[in-house]
Here is the input.
Amino acid sequence: MVSSSWGGILADRLGSRALLASGFALMLAGIACTLAAPLVAVGAGISLLTVGYFTAHSVASGTVGRLARSANGHASSLYLLFYYMGSSVFGSCGGWAWQRGGWPGVVALVAAVAMAGIALSAGAPRRVPDRARGQGTVEDAAEAEAAQALDREGVVRGLDRADRWSGPRSRGA
Here is the structure.
């Protein structure tokens, strides 16, 4: 619960890309610690793994809704669909890894997933626009300015705020 809250706060300050990669790196460090013999190291590893997992999850789920230009609910629903589907698939793969390689096999599976997460987080945006406060990235501001310029020239017509066709607008309105 704490790592999810901190993840959101830090994502606002540091950006989602850095925090996603950090969350996956914590998972990687945590799963490696579980290979150690002392029980204290295993406990610390499980803690690091959990904090990293929930940090990455909270940043990813928060980012999806803010990145969606429209249909935020659908975007969040799709994220959750793939979140639970991935959990089911990799949970089953964890059983296979346990049968084939014991705990080191499970560690290898989780490490591979964490490394894939680090690689994929490189494609995440650095900063995500905060629609509630009207803040956004430089790219969002440039895109909005270009759209306003096109609208002034009469190029963009007939779209209402929900991006649905509303018919032609009169130039005087």
About this structure: The helical segments are 2-14, 16-33, 39-67, 72-121, 138-152.
